[in-house]
Amino acid sequence: MISLAKPLRLAVGAFFIRDHPRIPHPSPRNFWVKGGDVFIKCYVICYNAYMALVQNKKAYFNYEMLTTFEAGMKLLGFEVKSLKSGRGSLEGAYVTIRNGEVFLLHAQIPPYQVGNTPTDYNPLRERKLLLNKKEVAELVGYEKQRGLTIIPISVYNRKNKLKVEIGIARGKKKYDKRETIKKRDVEREIGRTLK
Questions:
Q1: N-terminal to C-terminal alpha carbon distance within the chain
Q2: Is the pLDDT of residue 33 over 60?
Q3: Strands across the sheet with 27-35, in order?
Q4: Which of 58, 93, 113, 167 has the fewest CB atoms inside 10 Å of its own CB, making it the most exposed?
Q5: What is the pLDDT of residues 72-116, one digit of tens each?
Q6: What is the pTM of this model?
């Protein structure tokens, strides 16, 4: 896993990274290369990889993800600074829909500088998520289904705008969690023996 705070430019050919949900479609770049006395026009495809600023670390352990969406967030300026510095928590946070609008509840974003924060600021306040009508309608359909919940997975920076990845999730039972732990331990043991 890449753990840089800024977007990383990757020039790739055929790569599995194309199918990743957080990486946008390839952006072509043209440039000229001098080979001896001849200029050759080259065509390179670049991908922007975006690193998570805040993650819900237990999301994939406690839930089985069915599908994911990318949404913008309506934030205050000092909340943006706080998230860009990697402070915040998505544990216990969830998404709800009211009157055709999507809100993120119980996501904790501490103030960037306590002295410069308004006195009535609540770090757990509800924040509006920005999605188009088609995506909101799809989320309403998922929310009405029994046993499904909408949770935030991560917050990341994309083209200088903060985005939140939300997932449609089904809660795992205890035996599913035990199976996940067992599988992780087996993979760890295999990795140790191969070293």
A1: 19
A2: no
A3: 8-11, 38-49, 27-35
A4: 113
A5: 999 988 888 888 888 888 998 999 999 989 999 999 999 888 887
A6: 0.66
Selection from 110, 137, 127, 129 nearest residue 70 by Cα:
129
Looking at the predicted structure, is the pLDDT value of residue 7 above 80? Answer: no
Neighbours of 82 (CB within 10 A): 22
Residue bearing tokens 């000229």: 32
Residue type, position 122, single letter: N
Q: Are 42 and 31 in contact (CB under 8 A)?
A: yes
Cβ neighbour number for residue 54 with a 10 Å cutoff: 22
- Domain ranges across the chain: 8-49, 52-175
Residue 96 in contact with residue 140, Cβ under 8 Å? no
**Cα(69)–Cα(167) distance, rounded to whole angstroms?**
6
